[in-house]
Design a protein that fits this description.
The protein is an alpha+beta fold and 378 residues long. It is built from 17 helices and 6 strands. It has 4 domains: 59 residues, no CATH class; 136 residues, Beta Polymerase, domain 2, CATH 3.30.460; 93 residues, no CATH class; 65 residues, no CATH class.
Length: 378
């Protein structure tokens, strides 16, 4: 039994892979369906599948219309998001910044029949570390702003940006130079590796590329484990199902090779086993056997333990760094972020007037952080 093993999620998962799901056998309410679809971000996919059932569908008309209305909203939102993303990619290209789309945005436009079927909260892009400053100035130049954010080379490997368009839609963008903020995963795939095997995304224009399917599957297998404490969200699991279904059998050997070399084989075996159980995804038996093969315990497997909290992630990040100087630097970046961040985070102007308050700000931040640590909150 897993976190998503409920009658509602089982029924919706079956529906997503084309099984006829008879409403009268479900014994659930309209609200159960709507809440689950919203939580797992699968409303548009479910609406499409219900339409495909045609005359065989006995689902309540009010529920079908509710789902269809939500799907239409996603279509409208994605039309604006897609246009904005094309403008971002074109601007980066003009500035000479080579970029690759990661996760949701890339999958929406390369894997799904229609991009609105794969909703997302933000867009993830990875660029070379040397191009970060140019990329940052380019985004600021086309109307993006950077919210207050702790800097630090080891604390985070990305920069967040946001922009509100004339329709009031907020476009959020994470600019990465490594794939993860978690030290144990950060170097599993480099920008150079991703860029070499990246595939074009014609629907987003001539400047768009995203991770190839082997790398995209590896990222998808790691995503919920490394960033969301093993949350079993159906849209993420469906990403893995769709990628694995399209991956030629011969390519699974390369996938397993990358997982073993990156020290994430156990994590990938965990994710693919869940997906196969949920959707009946055809994962080659020899691939799972290789991922599960006895070996020295992989460091990343600690992320599969239940009830992980931020303090466990801190310890994992410290262990994931190879040198004591890097560990000391990471602790400094956490405990003593840059003065510019502190002033920005507390809403104070830069300059000498704000600077005199810095000792008090650091003290307040430390006390608040200590209280949060005691009560188990990040």
């Amino acid at each position: 039994m897993t976190a998503t093993d409920t009658p509602v999620t089982q029924a919706l998962a079956a529906l997503l892979v084309g099984e006829t799901t008879v409403w009268k056998t479900l014994r659930v309410s309209d609200l159960d369906i709507l809440e689950t679809c919203a939580k797992h971000r699968i409303g548009a996919l479910v609406s499409r599948q219900i339409r495909a059932l045609s005359t065989e569908c006995d689902w309540p008309s009010t529920l079908r219309e509710e789902l269809a209305g939500a799907a239409r909203n996603e279509v409208a939102r994605e039309a604006l998001s897609g246009r904005e993303l094309m403008a971002v990619l074109a601007a980066l290209s003009r500035a000479g910044v080579n970029s690759v789309l990661l996760k949701g945005a890339g999958l929406a436009y390369s894997l799904y029949e229609e991009p609105h079927l794969r909703p997302r909260c933000d867009t993830d892009l990875i660029v070379p570390r040397a191009a970060i400053d140019t990329a940052r100035e380019t985004l600021l130049g086309i109307g993006y702003h950077a919210p207050p954010y702790c800097d630090g080379e080891l604390l985070f490997h990305q920069l967040p940006f946001a922009k509100t368009d004339k329709f009031g839609v907020i476009h959020r963008l994470d600019l990465h130079w490594k794939i993860s903020t978690e030290a144990m995963f950060a170097d599993v795939l480099s920008f150079e590796t991703l860029a070499e095997a990246a595939i074009p995304v014609p629907r987003l224009g001539p400047h768009a590329r995203t991770a190839g399917h082997i790398h995209a599957l590896l990222l998808a297998c790691m995503h919920a484990v490394m960033h969301h404490r093993n949350e079993e969200r159906l849209i993420w699991m469906y990403d893995m199902h769709a990628l694995a279904t399209r991956l030629p059998t011969a390519n699974f050997a390369r996938f397993a090779e990358l997982a073993v070399a990156g020290g994430v084989a156990t994590v990938c075996a965990h994710s693919l086993t869940l997906v196969r159980a949920r959707f009946g995804t055809p994962i080659p038996t020899d691939t799972l056997a290789r991922l599960r093969a006895p070996r020295d315990a992989e460091a990343t497997s600690v992320y599969l333990r239940p009830a992980r909290r931020w303090r466990h992630e801190l310890v994992s990040n410290l262990r994931g760094l190879n040198h004591w100087r890097d560990r000391r630097r990471l602790l400094r970046e956490i405990l003593l972020p840059a003065p510019s961040y502190m002033l920005d985070a507390y809403g104070l102007p830069p300059g000498s007037r704000g600077a005199v308050l810095l000792p008090l700000l650091y003290l307040h931040r430390g006390v608040r952080g200590g209280i949060n640590a005691l009560i188990g909150r990040k």
